[in-house]
Amino acid sequence: MSLSPFSSSLSSPFAHSKHSIRALMLKVQLAALPALLVHIYLFGFGIVMQWLLALATLFVVEYTLLKLRKRPVLPFITDMSALITITGLVFCIPPGAPWWIIVSGTAFALIFGKHIYGGLGYNPFNPAMLGYAFLLISFPVQMTQWTLPAEVANHYITFSDAFYLIFTGVIPNVSVDIITSATPLGKLQTELSQGISAIESLAHTMPVAHDGYSSFHVIHLLFDLNSWEWLNIAFLIGGLWLLFTRSIRWQYPVGFLSSLGLMAFIFHSIDPSTYPPVDFILLSGGTMLAAFFIITDPVTSSTTPIGRFIFAFGIGVLVYTIRTWGIFPDGIAFAILLMNITVPLIDQYTQPRVYGHK
């Protein structure tokens, strides 16, 4: 078997685990189920349509590339590794984005994030985040308009609505303008640039009541959480289960969340009117998705215990930096890709000493 030019005696392709790839990928899929259900409840069935489109693209791309590489199709296409890639990507894109967004993003992620380096185990960059970064740079307008929660838009997107929206850009008898908006992170960034303080901006991110209250809406009000915060909590629940079953290493979420929270605490303490509080930073955007489902990829991260913590810690610092002073509201994709580049260096300097070596 030929080695990738990016591999070395210290790099990720040589990491071993007692878990089979398929069993591990299945656990990750199950852990993401709570977030998927919450996402459907809050934002409608757009994510289901996007996932089906990504799945169809996956089969076409995987079959074609495996044939071109003269690899057996069935063993590689059923290891579920590509399924994790599209699941991570689907959660990152707007559920009402045009169909070609998820198709092009999935194809780019699998071709340039996986197969071009020799397949699973040889890719230096996280495929899902590579596809996401490609979409952010190439289609910034389509990637920044998110479907509003049903309780805010006063319209729940059904499966047929999602079909019309994704394939035609319209929903019969519904104005698209009233069901889409920027995410809380994007809204905060825009309003800060307009001179509105973080305190004033965050005061308007809470759910707005319409005709009546659902049971879930009452919970929103009782716990003072918005829809994005509930989605992050759902990812947190799934992530804690992955930790409990030892499917992921604790250094990833602890390193990432501690550095992100520490940065938020320091700057919020210095200037609360400019920098949002810790809870907003930790429960906004794709924070928990990244902490437990994205940066935990063993192929593209460090292979040593200390190295994993440094890798995750660095991502947290970069995410806060990009969110606060960059042009992209979230910044998770770019932070992960930048730290992917540092993995060989981190591994080189964090290798444990061989027993007996002086």
What characteristics describe this protein?
single chain; 358 residues; mainly alpha; two-stranded antiparallel sheet; 62% helix; disordered N terminus
Describe the overall structure.
- Helix content is 62%, strand content 1%.
- The chain has 19 helices and two strands.
- The protein has a two-stranded antiparallel sheet with strand order 1-2.
- The longest helix has 23 residues, at 46-68.
- The model is unreliable at 1-19 and 206-223 (pLDDT under 50).
Brief rundown of the structure:
With 358 residues, this protein is mostly helical. It has helices at 21-31, 33-43, 46-68, 73-77, 81-92, 99-113, 127-138, 140-144, 150-153, 159-168, 184-193, 198-202, 215-223, 227-244, 251-270, 278-282, 287-294, 305-325, 332-350, and strands at 146-147, 180-181. It is globular.
